[in-house]
UniProtKB/TrEMBL annotation:
Residues 543-572 form a coiled coil. This is Tetratricopeptide domain-containing protein. Residues 1-43 form the signal peptide. The keyword Nucleus does not apply. InterPro entries: CHAT_dom, TPR-like_helical_dom_sf, TPR_rpt.
Length: 939
């Protein structure tokens, strides 16, 4: 049996990675309080009090313990702190005894001695309660509460930890300690992140820099341009440096990475490094380099920078090496080295030679010297380390398998077993579930019959532990893992049951998946999307395997489920695209939408059987009005779809392409996608085809598919939709055809002129559909707002440059005064239509194009269609000749204006306008008519 490649790596959640990467920040905050500035707070002694030798001895003990703590000699530091406690107790100096107990608690925490740490902290707080009010008491009490917060955080008591830090914050405010208050706010933001309270965490951190940055929350922060943010950060770095600012900026940079703003994270972290260098603090520089490396790694994995991947990977490597070189703490050095190892393994997925580099690097680490704290942070470090080791011994690499220098399977399993035991002893069920689940993933990776049995045992144990947590974000991963295991064991119905539970958990998270863990956006394609796709594959496989006596009813059930999962995948992609849960659904059966329309759901599935490794399957689900769904399957050669689609894209973007060159490719896709359905479409007198397209097929217009005699456009009106769940239908015949028109004809922001825009907008005006257009300088955000508010219109027509991308921030419409990204456009149109008498029925965008080199760019088109609030969106997939676009728009609005008489829908109006170009010899090449598509409500 072929093992499931990369399962272990894929299964280690982003939450685990996030906690692991934050280790350096946690230590840095501690050292800030107790090493980077001054020794621990000691109550001042009145000048009238005689200083005796015993007091001097106690002071020396404090100094000695502080130095030992700074140097990482924690066991020795604990012994000296105990002596200091006894010395202050003998002197009946309760304040300083409380101080020493707090720092003893902190030292025990670092040693993982939680019972002793808790006892010392409680003794400190009890002593302080008996003391009269004074400035010194308040300082030490705040410090004790801070240390209690660390302790509670490390044992997973997040709510209590936040409460402790908030109590300390009140004291710091009362006693006018702004630097300590700033440190405390950084601490609070950390535990808020662990609780999933990312907006609150961001707001708390920004309060530390409110004066310099001038923003109060992350949404406002995200609106800053790179230039604006750079200018604000330069103001901070030009001022006197402090460790508070260094750590605060580092914390903010880490948080920005978690919430999907890695470019801003990089700018903020660079500023933190500048301040750390000004302070000449090697440890703070090391901690910041560690964060810089994490952000560079995230950027390398970000789809929008694929062409710069190696540059970012090298930046990450350099940063980790600097962190390991500069740090004075063994724990920071170890983390930098392990992050470096993980990075090399990540690169190994693109460059096999990097696996050899990773192996050599691991051997250079002296693995026997690695030590992990028996704390919550240490547990996650062990899991992350075990993940890296599992990557090193992936069984498909026979040379590595035979290399006795590499860690053994049993050694990795032991590491995870220890992590699970430590988590159980700590009472941290979440960490225990992760450790057990990753043991299951490890055995799944090896893949023998006995291993799969063990994998199932540990996975079910993880699910049992997590069942009491009500954490669907964790449970979905292990139900998914269980589904894979049961499939490998040959039990397809049980595998479907497990996958369905994973799917249901994701559905329950759909409204707040981003809030639970924003970093999941970076791994959506590896950690979320496969659940949907693999469930669809199982459903279809099972439907086709059913015996005749069970086939019809059960098969229909499976096909309906597969169709629903495909639609849910589209919604999940859009929420991930926007980096927020903003897509609302309104599911309706197709026969309630249009009795003359059929909906086509194609999905490309990789064959998991080793004997057919070079074969993919194109599965097409067809939904017809008042009929159960039907399934059609076509076997394809691996990579053939991608190569065919890329060739068609190249043909379509060139008006010089000869039909004899491109026709065989158009016919090939027709044979894959339409010919199997052809008879059913004809028998049901279908007039409109609505496509819910899978990733690769989104990149070409369905209108160009050719049966050898005519284009698909000549047989059917065609529409696209991310799913029927997003359709809010209203027939074109019920719409008052009145439009706001605007456009840019002059060169602007590096874009070429569009001289025919004047003619395009004039044609619409001449039909009486629109009044005077907003052209060039008049096409501003404010003017469009005013027109929407003061007009009763159903159509907004924008003739301007626009770009669709798989990244929301890179999907934009060019207004005269700004590039408006998809989120800003949605706010503009939605906010204003709330007060208008009619919603926008149709948004028309001409002169659009998909981002070059972005194979998922059409996701941006779907994003515009959904976010704009318009029932339908018409746009172009590539920028075409100005004159043909003007002619097309004239024909389109003629069809729309006559709709009440002709009884056609929007897809049919689009079809007729395209056919007018197709039948014009000058514009018969698909380059001119094929890019126009309608997305959303086609009626």
């Amino acid at each position: 049996m072929k093992p499931n490649k990369g399962v272990f790596n894929r299964n280690l959640t982003n939450q685990v990675k996030r906690i692991y990467h934050k280790r350096s920040l946690f230590l840095a905050v501690l050292l800030f309080m107790f090493a980077s500035t001054a020794p621990p707070v000691i109550a001042k002694v009145s000048q009238t009090t005689q200083i005796v030798q015993t007091q001097s001895d106690a002071q020396q003990l404090v100094n000695q313990a502080t130095q030992l703590y700074r140097s990482g000699q924690l066991q020795e530091a604990a012994v000296v702190w105990e002596k200091a406690v006894s010395a202050f107790s003998a002197q009946k100096d309760n304040l300083n005894q409380a101080m020493a107990l707090s720092n003893l608690s902190l030292t025990y925490q670092q040693l993982g001695q939680w019972e002793k740490a808790t006892k010392a902290n409680q003794q400190s707080l009890v002593l302080l309660q008996t003391q009269p009010q004074s400035q010194d008491k308040q300082k030490i009490l705040a410090q004790a509460l801070d240390i209690q917060g660390y302790l509670q955080k490390e044992v997973g008591q997040f709510t209590q930890s936040l409460e402790s830090w908030q109590q300390a914050a009140k004291i710091y405010s009362q006693i006018k300690e702004p630097a300590k208050l700033a440190q405390n706010q950084i601490n609070q933001s950390q535990v808020m992140q662990d609780m999933g309270l990312f907006p609150r965490a961001c707001k708390t951190l920004l309060e530390v820099f409110n004066q310099e940055l001038g923003v109060s929350d992350c949404q406002e922060f995200s609106q800053l341009s790179s230039e604006e943010l750079t200018a604000k950060l330069q103001k901070i770095t030009s001022e006197s440096p402090s460790v508070t600012k260094v750590i605060g900026l580092r914390s903010l940079g880490e948080l920005l990475r978690f919430i999907g703003q890695p470019e801003q994270s990089q700018l903020v972290l660079d500023s933190s490094l500048i301040l750390a260098q000004k302070l000449n603090s090697p440890q703070e520089q090391a901690a910041t380099y560690l964060s810089i490396g994490n952000t560079a790694k995230t950027l390398a994995e970000n789809e929008r920078v694929r062409r710069r991947r190696e540059t970012y990977y090298q930046q990450a490597v350099d940063a980790y090496m600097q962190a390991a070189k500069l740090t004075t703490l063994p724990t920071t050095r170890q983390q930098a080295q392990l992050n470096h190892l993980g990075l090399l393994l990540k690169q190994g997925k693109y460059d096999p030679e990097k696996y050899q580099d990773a192996k050599a690097f691991w051997l250079s680490l002296n693995p026997q010297d690695l030590k992990f704290s028996p704390s919550r942070t240490g547990i996650y470090e062990q899991i992350n380390y075990a993940q890296s080791l599992a990557e090193l011994i992936q069984p498909e690499n026979s040379q590595q398998k035979q290399n006795s220098q590499l860690p053994s399977f049993d050694e990795i399993d032991k590491t995870l077993a220890e992590a699970a035991t430590q988590a159980k002893n700590l009472g941290d069920k979440q960490a225990e579930a992760y450790a057990l689940g990753n043991r299951g993933a490890l055995y799944e990776q090896r893949g023998s019959k006995e291993d799969l049995s063990q994998a199932e045992k540990f996975t079910r144990q993880a699910l049992n532990v997590v069942s009491s947590l009500e954490s669907p974000y964790i449970s979905y991963q292990y139900f998914w893992q269980l589904g894979r295991i049961r499939k490998a064991q040959g039990d397809i119905p049980d595998a479907i049951a497990a996958y369905t539970k994973a799917y249901n958990a994701l559905q329950s998270l759909r409204s707040d998946l981003v809030a639970v863990n924003p970093e999941v956006q970076f791994s959506f394609r590896s950690s979320v999307e496969p659940v949907y796709r693999q469930l669809v594959e199982l459903e279809l496989e099972y439907a086709q395997s059913l015996k005749a006596d069970k086939k019809e009813q059960e098969s229909q059930k499976r096909l309906t489920q597969a169709r629903n999962v495909l639609e849910s995948l589209q919604l999940a992609e859009l929420n991930n695209f926007f980096r927020e849960a903003c897509v609302e659904t309104n599911s309706k059966p197709i026969d309630q939408l249009d009795t003359n329309a059929a909906v086509v759901y194609p999905i490309i599935l990789s064959n998991q059987q080793q004997s057919n490794a070079n074969v993919e399957r194109l599965e097409v689900i067809l939904s017809l009005p008042k009929q159960p769904p039907r399934l059609y399957s076509t076997k394809l050669k691996k990579q053939e779809v991608e190569e065919t689609v890329e060739q068609i894209q190249a043909f379509l973007k060139s008006p010089e392409t000869k039909l004899e060159q491109s026709l065989p490719y158009y016919q090939k896709v027709y044979d894959w996608l339409i010919r199997p359905l052809q008879q059913d479409l004809e028998n049901n007198k279908i007039k409109t085809l609505v496509f819910v397209l899978d990733e690769k097929l989104r990149n070409i217009p369905m209108s160009v598919l050719h049966d050898g005699k005519q284009y698909l456009l000549q047989k059917y009106a065609i529409a696209l939709t991310p799913g029927l769940q997003l359709i809010n239908p209203k027939p074109l015949t019920d719409i008052n055809i009145k439009a706001i028109t605007a456009g840019i004809s002059k060169p602007r922001e590096g874009f070429k002129e569009l001289p025919q825009v004047r003619q395009e907008l004039k044609q619409i005006e001449d039909l009486g559909v629109a009044s005077k257009s907003l052209l060039d300088e008049k096409f501003t955000t404010k003017e469009v707002q005013n027109q929407i508010l003061n007009s009763d219109v159903s159509i907004i027509h924008l003739a301007t440059h626009a770009q669709f991308s798989s990244i929301a921030d890179d999907t934009f419409i060019l207004f005269w005064d700004q590039r408006m990204n998809v989120k800003q456009l949605g706010n503009l149109l939605r906010n204003n239509t709330l007060t208008s008498r009619r919603p926008i029925e149709l948004l028309v965008l001409s002169a659009c194009e998909t981002a070059i080199g972005d194979q998922r760019a059409t996701l941006g088109l779907a994003g515009v269609a959904v976010r704009s609030g318009a029932r339908s969106t018409m746009a172009t997939l590539w920028s075409v000749q100005d004159e043909s676009t003007a002619k097309f728009m004239g024909n389109l609005y003629s069809q729309l204006e006559q709709a009440k008489k002709t009884k056609i829908n929007k897809a049919q109006a689009l079809q007729q306008a395209q056919l007018a170009l197709l039948n014009d010899q000058q514009y018969s090449n698909p380059h001119f008519w094929a890019p126009f598509v309608v997305v959303g409500n086609w009626q």
